[in-house]
Design a protein that fits this description.
This protein has helices spanning about 5-20, 30-50, 90-115, and strands spanning about 75, 80, 125-130, 155, 160-165, 175-180, 185-190, 195, 205, 215-220, 235-240, 245-250. It has about 250 residues and is an alpha+beta fold. The strands form four sheets. The chain has a four-stranded antiparallel sheet, with no helix packed on it. Strands 4-5-6-9 form a four-stranded antiparallel sheet, with no helix packed on it. Strands 1-2 form a two-stranded antiparallel sheet.
Length: about 250
């Protein structure tokens, strides 16, 4: 079994991944489960310390009030026994326990949020890594939706990519929405049209139960990879979640 010191170091590392700037633990279910396990182990250890007296003269980690009448006194030949109060948990210990409970609750909530969309239905090993919300201030090149009016939306950027959704050319209620994912740095718009120096610039429209989807493999020579921090041969899939009006990003 790992030593307690090792568990403490691992717990501190996982807490930083959960709450420090740039936290990434929500994309790592195994790390989340490990953090929950270590938090539970820490609480069990504290409970065990309170139920067993310290050995070998070591100080009890739980603070207790000094007993009243610490020195026995004599009264009419009888020895008065000192009165002792029940142990009182330090405020810092209580805060630690509350914080551990909050950590577990927060991470469980994060797991629910990450799994709002069914991921990896074919069990090929893809992982949901981001959800992109609408970004109204972003200016969308008109060339991307020429001939379409109204309800055109841009979404937050991910690794240099910008998703854009818009109504399809089919009229009528329930018409499917379409999506184009591109990198603005590779897009050049002019009066005569536009140019794109990347490899992929294809629209995708929803069809029945199937949402609009864009998939790309970033090879060593793919122009789009230069604007990312991703290694070669990383596959990305962008899926439009119409119910929540978000674009979900998967990595494989």
């Amino acid at each position: 079994m790992p030593r307690i010191d090792d568990d403490d170091d691992e717990l501190a590392t996982l807490r930083r991944r959960a709450f420090a700037p740039g936290a990434d633990i929500s994309a790592d279910p195994a790390a989340v489960e490990r953090l929950i396990e270590l938090e539970q182990r820490a609480r069990d250890a504290l409970a065990g310390d309170k139920s067993h007296p310290p050995r070998g003269g070591e100080p009890d980690p739980v603070a207790v009030d000094a007993p009243d009448d610490a020195e026995a006194t004599e009264d009419d030949g009888e020895i008065a026994r000192p009165r002792r109060r029940m142990p009182r948990v330090r405020r810092s210990t209580a805060v630690l326990l509350a914080g551990a409970a909050l950590t577990v609750a927060t991470l469980l909530t994060a797991l629910v949020i990450v799994q709002r969309v069914q991921t990896d239905p074919l069990q090929v090993g893809a992982t949901q890594v981001a959800r992109l919300a609408p970004d109204p201030p972003f200016e969308i090149p008109t060339s991307l939706y020429r001939g379409i009016t109204g309800n055109v939306k841009a979404y937050a950027a991910f690794e240099g990519f910008r998703p854009v959704t818009y109504p399809s050319f089919r009229a009528g209620e329930g018409a499917a929405r379409c999506m184009t994912v591109y990198q603005p740095d590779l897009f050049d718009e002019s009066e005569d049209g536009y140019g794109y120096e990347g490899q992929f610039l294809l629209p995708s429209c929803a069809a029945g139960l199937f949402p609009a989807t864009f998939t790309i493999l970033l090879t060593e020579d793919t122009p789009e990879r230069a604007a990312t921090t991703l290694p070669a041969d990383t596959a990305l899939q962008f899926v439009y979640d119409e119910d929540l009006d978000e674009v979900v990003v998967f990595r494989g």
